[in-house]
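Run log, item B.
One chain of 260 residues. Sequence copied directly from the ordering sheet:
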Amino acid sequence: MCTINDKKGASAAAVQNRHPGYTLLELLVVVGIITILMSLLLPVLGTVRRHAKITACASNLRQLALAMNTYAIANEGRYPTLATVGTGGNLWDVPPSFYNALLNQGLSHDMFFCPAAQDYSMPDGVFDAYSTFYILNYNIWVPRLNGTNIIPPAPTYTGGLFKIVQPPPATPFAGPARMSDPVAATNPMITDLAGSSGATPPANADATLPGNPYGFAATTNHREGNRLLGVNQAFADGHVEIHSAADMKPYYMGSWWNWR
C-alpha cells in the first residue's frame, strides 16, 4: 500500500529527473551567436592560411636562388643562362635544360610552384610543357637567349619583338648572369610570377588600382580576387624580400607585361 511519504518521494524524484527543454527563441539566439563568431573567425583564418602560403612561396624562391648559386659555382660563376627557342618572351618561359639543371642541384618538382598562386599555369603540378620549353610558376630574371633575342631585354631595346615601358628604365632591370655581376646586389634573380595583358601600363603604373585595369593574369601568384598583394623577390645571396604591390612596376612586354 502506497503511503503519503512514498508519494512525496516519487514526486521529488520526478522533479529531479525532469530536464527542461530549450525554447525556439533560445536556439535561435545560440545559432545567431555561432554565426557571428564564424563570420569573425573565417576571414582571420583565411588571412593566416594565405600568409602561410606566401611564406612557403618565399622558401621556394630561396631554395631556387641557392640552387642557381650552386650551379654557378660548378660553371665558372655563370648562372643557368640556358638558351631556348623563341617563346612568348616572358620570364616564366625556360628551356627543359634549365629545369633539369636545378633538379640536379637537389630541388624537387614542387619548388617550381608557388603555393600562394590563385591559379597555376601548370594545373595539378603538371608543366605547361611545349616541345621545346616549359612555363614555370616563377619569373626568372637571369638573362638568357630566347631565339635570337635576350630576355629580359635591355631598357634600350629597339627591335620588333618586345615593347619597353615608357619612359624606359634608366638602369638595367635584368638580373645577374654571373656571380660577379654588380646587379647581383640590386636586381633579383627570381621573383613570383606577375604578368598583365590589359591596358598598356605607364612606367609609373599603380598595380593596386581597383578593378584590375591592367589585366593581371589569374596565374599571377599573390592575388586575393582581383587585388594584387605583391611579390617575393630572391637575390643572388639567397635572401628574399617581399615587394608590395604599390611598389611593383612593369618593365617589358613579351606576350604579357612582366612586372616586379
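Observations after the first pass:
- The first strand starts at residue 93 and ends at 94.
- Helices lie at 4-17, 24-73, 96-103.
Flagged for discussion on Thursday.
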